[in-house]
Amino acid sequence: MNKLFLLVVSVLALALPAGLSAADPVPHHDGPVAHGPALQDVGESIAIPAGREARTMALLADVGFDRVNANGLIWRDIAIARSQVTFALTQADTKRNVGEIVLRHRDEAGRGDRVGHEFALSIRTLQASPAVTAALEAAAASILARDTGGYFAVFGQPSPARLLWTMAALMAVWAAALLAWLARTRGWHRLRLRFEPTHLLPAVIQLVLYGYWATHVAEVSDQLPRIAAQLGFAFALDALLGLTLQRSWDLTFGPIPVVLSTNLFVWFPPGAFHLALAVIALALGSKWLLRRQGRHIFNPSAFGIAVVGTVCLLLPNLARFQDIAHLISEPPAMLPLLVGLALIAQVRVPVVLITLSSALVLLGLKAAGAYHVVYPFWPAILLALTLLATDPATIPQSGLGKLLYGLSFGVLVWAMSAGLTWLGESDFFGKVLPLPVVNLLVPAFDRAAAAITAQVEKLPKRLRWLATCLEARWNLAHVASWLALAAVYVLG
Length: 492
Fold this sequence. Notes:
Oligomer: single chain
Structural class: alpha+beta
Shape: globular
Largest sheet: 5 strands, antiparallel
Number of helices: 17
Low-confidence stretches: 12-44
Strand order of the largest sheet: 2-3-4-6-5
Radius of gyration: 26 Å
Number of domains: 3
Strand content: 5-15%
């Protein structure tokens, strides 16, 4: 546990202060239409970067910008100040303002504001009538529906480019010192290429998923340069850790699924790119430092996301994240695609019992009328159940152990999500935070499975099949059971 503590503290000590360093000032600009005086800026650390005009107008896509509705009302004027936007609703014939919506960052929300993922909306009725009220409500719904994050920038945080150059310089110094030490001690053991299917298969599955996602969600393409930067950082850090800790390093596909899976679960605003690097550093650090019987204990991506996610929940003004659960749900056939892609791994490796048992727990809690519903066939949750929780290196070895692991994971996902909701927080990290816990308990699940199996084998002969029905040789039957359950909810 001392290694765990040192790993978490050292990485966050490196990453989080970067968010407090000076950076290029965020530009101040006017909006596409700036009629009338801009309202006073309310935020000193939050600003709207240049180039948001088209995206701002797109927030009104459901009601139409500069288009007269049936009641003669038109959204014509938009004023973009440094940290807020004012949408003005006008009577088309008189050109008189009859209402407006003021959009701010949710951290600047006032009493009575409607708060979404990133936005806080204040609705002002200047001329009371049912038509005006309906128009304001429709516009508010349109804006909140397109609240995908990343609209605002946090002033004072370093740009990704500056941060990457800083990290590259630090890693170059590390590499130079390391090479000098290895040359002096002649301690260089091995440096080789090693390509393993266990690393390549998840990377291919994730790339297919990204390809489909990007064709339906424009924001995914915007994220690709950041993912590429994270991949470069991951390979460099993996090499430095290997050569430092073991005086050897194998170039594998290993860092690729770590980075890709991380970006399927959480993004960070450009001003908080240091947090994305912290997730990768924690993930790879846990893989090298936190080991049990020669294997890493935690799913690397889940460990990194869980630690940084905890910081985001505890210090929201310091550490900001972008909720992408809604983005992963936008493509029309995402659920069948997830089920189909996961099937490739499930047929090859006996892991489906984890997904099946977790889904059954969540469906059972939903049917029982639990306080908080976590629906397993929502894409963001299904992604965690199929592609994150089933890392073969960090799960129990026995079939019954996997069943216990999956049941526990399902209960903890519900409990964590319900607890965060009850506390008034987003349950976004609820699907990831429990995973390091069940990873840590893997030996306990295997011991419990062995004890239960020993008792089952004492049953009468006609019931002893219960001791073997969860074994890997029945994997195709387990996969068929999962597909039958998924078909009911995905295709039904």
